[in-house]
Amino acid sequence: MPIYEFECKKCKKQFELIVFSGDIPECPYCKNKDITKRISTFNAHNVGPGPASSKSGESCNTCISKNCSTCK
After folding, report:
1. What is the DSSP letter of 5?
2. HSE-up of residue 45 (Cα within 13 Å, Cβ side)
3. pLDDT band with cut points at 50, 70 and 90 for residue 4
4. What is the structure's pLDDT at 26?
5. Single pTM value for the model
6. Rounded to an integer, what distance in angstroms lies between the CA atom of residue 27 and that of residue 25?
7. CA atoms within 13 A on the CB side of 16
């Protein structure tokens, strides 16, 4: 039961849905079936010992960006 993020092409609303195999998702606001799957992001936290930040400019273990405020 993956949860996906979508955007409706008609009303432009963004929403999340649980999509089962074989389901055709639709916008919960306007019932339009012409929707776009968005790239989902998640928030990872440092679970290991020590600080999460990397002063060397390399990616830390809380993100994949080298330009976030944690990695600087």
Report:
1. E
2. 1
3. confident
4. 95
5. 0.52
6. 7
7. 7
Q: Please, are residues 27 and 17 in contact by the beta-carbon 8 Å criterion?
A: no
What is the number of structural domains in the chain?
A: 1
Name the residue among 56, 48, 50 with its Cα closest to residue 72.
Answer: 56
pLDDT digits (tens, 9 = 90+) for 13-61: 999 998 888 889 999 999 999 999 987 666 555 555 555 544 555 555 5
| 11 in a structural domain | yes
- The letter for the amino acid at 50 is G
Q: For the chain, where are the E strands, in sequence order?
A: 3-8, 14-18, 35-37
Helix, strand, or coil here: 26?
Answer: coil
> Is there a domain that residue 21 lies in?
yes
